[in-house]
UniProtKB/TrEMBL annotation:
Residues 474-512, 957-995 are annotated as: Disordered. The keyword Transport does not apply. This is SOSS complex subunit A homolog. Residues 957-968 have a biased composition (Polar residues). Component of the integrator complex, a multiprotein complex that terminates RNA polymerase II (Pol II) transcription in the promoter-proximal region of genes. The integrator complex provides a quality checkpoint during transcription elongation by driving premature transcription termination of transcripts that are unfavorably configured for transcriptional elongation: the complex terminates transcription by (1) catalyzing dephosphorylation of the C-terminal domain (CTD) of Pol II subunit Polr2A/Rbp1 and Spt5, and (2) degrading the exiting nascent RNA transcript via endonuclease activity. The lineage of its organism: Eukaryota, Metazoa, Ecdysozoa, Arthropoda, Hexapoda. Residues 56-461 form the Integrator complex subunit 3 N-terminal domain. Residues 592-941 form the Ints3-like C-terminal domain. Keywords: Cytoplasm, Nucleus. One of its GO terms (cellular component) is nucleus. Residues 494-512 have a biased composition (Acidic residues). It holds the Pfam family Ints3_N. Belongs to the Integrator subunit 3 family. Signal peptide: none annotated. It comes from Pieris brassicae.
């Protein structure tokens, strides 16, 4: 065996210093196992051995055979045939593992492995294996653009030959057809070199045939199809296709009206993603989600060496920009962090481009979603990077901003002259959306910057005059005296029709690339102050310098007509608050600690709301908060307001000496309600959002606010699932104990009985500690067993162990009742599930007689066939949720109880008179199958003597008569109380250890 392991073939190319990873070890182990089964066996013996082994471990045998196919060409045909014979899932396991192997390890494959992979794909296609199209999709992602190395060309041509040879198979997969067209349209652009002309012609012929035959499906590719077709428009076949698209659209499809139909359809992210290899995608995602701004240069240099070092790779920049723009959409938290933003990565891709053609295509890729932007259908995240590249490059790389603005102006009349008005409207929609969504505070500094060439500034002003207005236009206030500022010298970038550009020499101290993001933002201060009235600008400068509540109060007190706009004030406070440390308190904050937290400028704005100042200033503050919320630049405003109101509430209570007056101190919840109303959000939506942000900031603040929030907004928040989940996913054991103590003191009420079942059912998917916290809180609130009964049948002992354990401990404190037993016996019978057995056996210690009577009633009244003339009950799939358990379920649980009693050598419960009669009655009405299945259980019914009870009490035969409804077929009999059961010995109720 050891020798076999040493000589096992290799899937991957590994260097001497690389250790085997878990994937390689898994495949090697599976291969060795497979070889051990078939070594030195005849064909029949090998088949028998494989069939026996695959029943026990289907996946490992399949993987071993897959590795043999991929590494041993001489055995691949026979091994594939054997795999076809033994597969139990139609190759699902093989296809899933093959796709994962391609996505994770394709670049490390041996040449033999790559050849065999293509052979295997061809064989599966030839045999119409279901699901092989997904393998083709993943494999095509490695047919990379910007790469004409032999290995890549081999893959490109091999896949093309597979599709040509199996066109009838390809015709069945519309999504794969779109992928093939999109991929090869992009690759044709790179294959315009002499030694690849034969391949290119083959690609052209095949892609043209697919487009013309499947144009209805191809329409779903949207606007990026047009972009790729433009790049190959000079090829005669595509030139003719363009003529038909523009002049004879109906010849392509009866549903196709004109090219505008394509341009107004956004391309799916899956196609934008498909033009980067999985390895490139992982690196770009890492760069834009993990690397801090100012620490990114080494990563970018590595990326450039790896993927952008050759002249052919220049065309790859457009693919990367389309991917960043259309696929990477950061969360709000990421946008507010110091992680390198998308605009910085795109700016790097633009500034390092060395080809004029590639640079033009990269600009088009950046602005492409602008051209036909529709706010109703398109995404603001697709247009945001372009405006931010121009905005941030103006200071350190003005030539980049200049060339992008020039491109934007030129593209309106030149993209497609017949649709110039549509392109203009799309770009104007984009700029309008940028202002409305507060991506930039205003466009005036960008469009009228003194760093731009005079001719370009004139062109920009003429093109976008609506956004360059004087006074209070949509773009904000115009800078005073801007015409008197000095113009650029002879080194200013100039633009020509052929897009010739020279890289400007940038002074080292103006380069932002190595600065932290906070410093880059700090350089925007003049723009922030300029948007305010002149009288307020000194106060704004002081606030930006000091960032204190006192400076903010001085600014707000100085706000007199003409008042600043909410937009300008929001931008100023957002810049001030962005880099301040988050609010933090200890578990038991002191008054001085709380006062220290009030030094943040945001609390000066709350003071104006709290003090009921004049209406105009109050309205200004509320509108400013609305703007801050809209641009989501300061996510902490809501919970900071709750924090401030709580501090004021505690201060007022400390001031009052009289206990009666102290109880009458009110929490100013009306201020928070006004804040929510002004945002046009429901209170509970605001609370959930604010608690989410508070969760990320400081868990101690969240716990400190809980009791007040649940008191003041109890109608909205009690039983609210999402809010509850935020709490239990945040707190630790000490904070949980604090909440339990508040509950026991009567200061916290988190639950109500309405819609209780929905809340509990939803919580079953939470993490273990989250569910533990929930059930501890439920126990502290003394939730009754009746509230949790409906979920008992739904709880899986494997998946819902936390909830099941909590319910079990809750039942431990209760006396047995008909409704509880009914719900318990509705659970599915499973030998490993001991919930019912454990509960019943525990109850039998003190309430054996009552438990026996309850089980007897349940078995007798719900047994099918009680009446020979009774109509057959509906099948198990039509039983309503609250229906009683079937006889099969009751018998199944009783059988489990019987086995437990046998193990404990105490069968007393089955020898009670009521259960004896119920078993006899059940046996007489059971079919032969049930009698055989529960033979041991029914055999207990024929015992003649009634032994001692579990607690050594004699059971008199007339002391516990069977309920009169025992033999009745009345469906409601289970709800009746047992007639005068013997009083069980009262046990002392266990004390909860919740706290």
């Amino acid at each position: 065996m050891e020798q076999m392991k040493v000589n096992s073939p290799k899937l991957f190319v590994c260097t001497a210093i690389e250790n085997k990873d878990e994937i390689e070890e898994r495949y090697e182990k599976a291969y060795i196992n497979f070889q051990s089964l078939v070594a030195d066996c005849s064909e029949k013996e090998a088949h028998d051995a494989l069939n026996n082994a695959v029943c026990k471990n289907h996946e490992d045998i399949s993987l071993g055979m897959l590795m043999s196919i991929l590494t041993e060409p001489q055995n691949s045909t026979k091994c594939y045939r054997d795999l076809t014979l033994i597969t139990r899932d139609g190759f699902t396991c093989v296809l899933n593992n093959l796709s994962n192997l391609i996505l994770e390890r394709y670049l490390k494959f041996h040449d033999t492995t790559r050849n065999q992979l293509l052979w295997l794909v061809k064989e599966m296609i030839r045999n119409s294996v279901s699901g092989v199209d997904s393998v083709c999709w993943n494999l095509m992602r490695y047919a990379s653009g910007g790469d004409i190395t032999p290995k890549n060309i081999f893959l490109v041509e091999s896949l093309l030959d597979i599709y040509i040879d199996n066109k009838s198979w390809l015709d069945k997969y519309p999504v794969l057809i779109c992928m093939v067209v999109y991929t090869y349209l992009r690759l044709i652009e790179d294959h315009n070199v002499p030694h690849l002309m034969t391949l290119r012609q083959k690609e052209v012929n095949f892609v043209i045939s697919l487009i013309r035959e499947h144009f209805d499906e191809i329409l779903s590719l949207g606007r990026d199809l047009v972009r790729l077709l433009q790049n190959v428009a000079r090829i005669p076949e595509f030139n003719q296709l363009w003529q038909d698209i523009l002049l004879n659209p109906k010849t392509l499809s009866s549903t196709f009206t004109n090219v505008l139909q394509l341009l107004q359809t956004r391309t799916s992210r899956r196609y934008l993603q498909s033009r980067l290899t999985p390895d490139m995608e992982r690196k770009l995602v890492f760069l834009t989600s993990q690397v801090r701004f100012g620490h990114h240069k080494k990563y970018q240099e590595w990326f450039q060496r790896q993927y952008l070092a050759t002249p052919e790779s220049q065309s790859l920049r457009s693919d990367m920009i389309r991917f960043i723009v259309g696929v990477i959409h950061p969360t709000n938290e990421l946008l507010c962090s110091d992680i390198i933003p998308r605009w910085a990565v795109i700016g790097w891709l633009l500034t390092t481009c060395t080809s004029n053609v590639a640079a033009s295509n990269a600009k088009l890729a950046l602005f492409y979603d602008w051209l036909f932007y529709d706010p109703e259908k398109d995404n603001i995240m697709n247009i945001e990077p372009a405006i931010l590249v121009m905005h941030h490059s103006m200071r350190s790389h003005p030539a980049v901003t200049a060339t992008l603005l020039d491109f934007l102006c030129r593209i309106i009349p030149n993209f497609y002259p017949s649709f110039s008005d549509k392109v203009r409207q799309g770009i104007f929609n984009s700029l309008q959306q940028i202002i409305e969504k507060r991506v930039l505070p205003n466009l005036q500094p960008l469009f009228d910057s003194p760093k731009l060439d005079r001719e370009l500034r004139t062109t920009v002003r003429d093109t976008f005059k609506e956004f360059c207005s004087n006074g209070e236009g949509v773009s904000g206030l115009r800078e005073e005296g801007i015409e008197d500022l000095p113009r650029g010298g002879p080194d200013e970038p100039a633009f020509s029709d052929d897009e010739d550009e020279t890289t400007p020499i940038i002074a080292e101290d103006t380069d932002d690339d190595d600065l932290p993001l906070s410093e880059v933002r700090a350089r925007e201060r003049p723009e922030l102050a300029a948007a305010l009235p002149t009288a307020l600008r000194p106060f704004a400068e002081t606030l930006l310098d000091e960032r204190t509540a006192a400076a903010a109060t001085a600014l707000l007190n100085a706000c007199t007509p003409p008042m600043p706009t909410p937009i300008a004030l929001a931008d100023l406070f957002a810049a001030v608050l962005q880099d301040l440390p988050p609010l933090k308190i200890s578990a038991n904050p002191t008054p001085s600690e709380l006062d220290l937290n009030l030094s943040s400028p945001i609390f000066s704005m709350f003071e104006l709301l709290f003090a009921n100042s004049n209406d105009s200033k109050r309205k200004l503050i509320l509108e400013t908060f609305k703007e801050i919320h809209a641009q989501n630049s300061v996510p902490s405003v809501g919970f900071s307001l709750l924090f401030y109101l709580k501090i004021c509430y505690e201060k007022d209570r400390r001031v009052e000496r009289d206990p009666a007056k102290k109880r009458n101190v009110k929490f100013k919840m009306d201020i928070y309600k006004t804040y929510c109303s002004n945002l046009e959000l429901k209170i509970v939506e605001c609370l959930v959002n604010d608690f989410e942000k508070c969760q990320e900031c400081d868990s101690n603040i969240l716990v400190w606010l809980i009791s007040d929030v649940y008191r003041e907004f109890k109608d909205q928040v009690q039983n609210h699932i999402k809010l509850l989940h935020i709490i239990v996913s945040t707190i630790d054991a000490g904070q949980l104990q604090r909440l339990v103590c508040l509950t026991l003191q009567g200061n916290l009420m988190m639950f109500k009985t309405d819609d209780f079942t929905t809340m509990l059912t939803t919580s079953l998917n939470w993490e273990t500690f989250e569910q533990y916290c929930l059930w501890q809180l439920l126990t502290a609130h003394e939730i009754s067993v009746e509230d949790v009964l409906p979920i008992i049948p739904k709880l899986s002992y494997r998946e819902h162990a936390e909830a099941l354990t909590s319910v079990l401990l809750m039942l431990k404190q209760e006396k047995p009742s008909q409704e509880v037993v009914r719900q318990m016996f509705c659970r599915t019978v499973d030998d490993e599930d001991t919930f019912v057995v454990s509960t019943v056996m525990y109850w039998c210690q003190d309430y054996e007689e009552k438990v026996a009577d309850l089980l007897a009633v349940l078995l007798s009244t719900r047994y099918p066939g009680t009446s020979p003339n009774k109509r057959k009950r509906p099948g198990k799939h039509t039983i309503p949720p609250n229906a009683p358990p079937s006889a099969e379920l009751v018998l199944g649980h009783l059988e489990q109880i019987r086995i437990c009693c046998v193990e404990q050598d105490d069968m007393s419960i089955f020898k009670t008179e009521c259960l004896q009669k119920a078993l006899q009655h059940s046996q007489s009405n059971s079919n032969d199958n049930l009698k055989r299945q529960y033979m041991d259980l029914f055999s207990l019914a024929w015992e003649d003597e009634l032994p001692m009870l579990r607690r050594a009490r004699k059971m008199a035969s007339n002391s516990m008569p069977l309920n009169q409804n025992l033999h009745s077929s009345n469906e409601d009999s289970e709800e009746e109380e047992i007639v005068k059961p013997k009083q069980a010995k009262r046990r002392k109720k266990a004390i909860s250890d919740s706290d």
